[in-house]
Amino acid sequence: MTRPVILVVGGAGYIGSHMVLGLLGAGYPVVTLDNLSRGHRELLPGGDFVEGDAGNPTHLREVFSRYPVSAVMHFAAHSQVGESVERPLMYYRNNVASTITLLEAMQDAGIRHFIFSSSAAVYGEPVQVPITETHPTQPTNPYGATKLAVERLLADYSAASGMTYSVLRYFNAAGADVSGKLGERHRPETHLIPLVLQVATGERESIRIFGDDYPTADGTCLRDYIHVSDLGRAHLLALEALLGGAGNSVYNLGNSSGHSVRQVIDTARAITGHAIPAGIAARRAGDPAVLVADSTRIRNELGWQPEHEHIETIIRSAWKWHQREAG
What we know:
The chain is α/β, with parallel strands linked by helices. It contains ten helices and 14 strands.
């Protein structure tokens, strides 16, 4: 039986490219739409590619007229917290306004299924840990606010139009495809694991630890790291549920366990054999001590189980990729 065509918006980015790989592996015809402002064409593992912007109605009409798309997966948001504070208008324009344009084009084309890449940033400062999907949503930065705005938009639009959607709120995406051919490439880089590994490859001299006086076992922040391939698998399950007639859903994605900054650095030292010098810097404003997901809902409803949940596995896969990048 022929699989339906899936459009991956932002498919040339870190998570999007892994999603394309997962869809192709499951037998889906894939079309990627990406403006390449932050994505990398050479990292796409296959499928058709259209260079274009989700906020441009002309580009969207071109895609939907050329391809019989059945569902859209949206990974094209800007995602740097600090940048969102400095440039909120850019974040609202790209993350919210472009999504409205995309939904309008989907409506015109009769496309009824939407998968949205959201974030734990919608929760803000945690009032309980682990965090469930019913936790209060009080984002503390424009990035999180734009993600929550789209979630609310989807609920309202679905009620009016009958479109079905799945929102996946993930915690700290990390790691790389085990082949070593795909991985994380951000310019500038802001995520802990790539920054640590760039010290091991010689691209950086040291790593900074922002605060060592948090109420955790070793004084550093605790985060829930989830392998990017496990993220892709969760999106695939959510897609297949929608295509099979399921209703709207919101899911947390995490391993339901946390690792501290020091644990990440120590694990990277053991895997790379590099000393990875680390210095202590002042806390960053808005960094909670602990962020850990409760992903019980998606495990129970869709049968999702992470396959690469150990921090050693996550860092080892990322190290394979970063060695290739540095070489």
